[in-house]
Design a protein that fits this description.
- This protein is about 40% helix and about 10% strand.
- It is of the alpha/beta class and about 200 residues long.
- The protein has two domains: about 50 residues, RecR Domain 1 (Helicase, Ruva Protein, domain 3); about 110 residues, 3-Layer(aba) Sandwich (Dna Topoisomerase Vi A Subunit, Chain: A, domain 2).
- The longest helix has 18 residues.
- The N and C termini lie far apart (about 60 Å).
């Protein structure tokens, strides 16, 4: 949707902003106008930060995390347990687990999940490198921390098959009732998963 009186520079800005997740043409136009009205306090620093990130940040050659160093700060941190590798779909998932502080091993970012609908095949994901890492004598467990979607579960089953002869234990995150969750508000799939994942008290 072209703005009536916007020049090509503004149109380019709106078009690029509209490519961001969650921003359509209208939201992108509002964001562009806001940035232009806050040129010095926001727009110029943002442009500098984007250029800096584009120049300095890259994917870790070990796990796929984004960082200014390679290996990344997570892979090179002292005290991480080399025996366990947690497999996640995206870097955002890795960051979420790090915020929770629940995992002290190493990570592996797949870069997505298998999807017949979207045409994502095994060779499109970082699976071959995971199989290589699983063959390391230090590794004893692969934790599949994939989203509880159809594609996520399909990917988990595929990875379990690929890792069957790697000599490692393949586990997945428990599914079910979230902390603070009330049964009456949970969907049927979550309740069913909770029953399947029940444990001794």
């Amino acid at each position: 949707m072209r703005s009536a009186s916007a020049g090509p520079e503004i149109e380019r800005l709106i078009t690029l902003l509209a490519k961001l997740p969650g921003l359509g043409p209208r939201s992108a136009r509002r964001a562009a106008l806001f940035l232009l009205s806050k040129r010095d306090p926001l727009m110029r620093p943002l442009a500098d930060a984007l250029a800096d990130a584009a120049d300095k940040i890259s994917a870790c050659s070990v796990c796929g995390n984004l960082d200014v160093s390679d290996p990344c700060s997570v892979c090179s941190a002292p005290g991480r347990q080399p025996s366990a590798i947690c497999v996640v779909e995206t870097v955002g998932d890795l960051w979420a687990l790090e915020r929770a502080g629940a995992f002290k091993g190493r990570y592996h970012v797949l870069g997505g999940v298998l999807s017949a609908l979207d045409g994502v095949r095994p060779e499109d994901l970082n699976i071959a490198r995971l199989v290589e890492r699983a063959a390391d004598a230090e590794v004893t467990e692969i934790v599949l921390a994939l989203n509880a979607t159809v594609d996520g579960q399909t990917t988990a089953h595929y990875l379990a098959d690929r890792l069957e002869n790697a000599g490692v234990s393949v586990t997945s995150l428990a599914r079910g009732v979230p902390v603070g969750g009330e049964l009456d508000y949970l969907d049927d799939g979550t309740l069913a998963a909770a029953f399947k994942s029940r444990s001794s008290v």
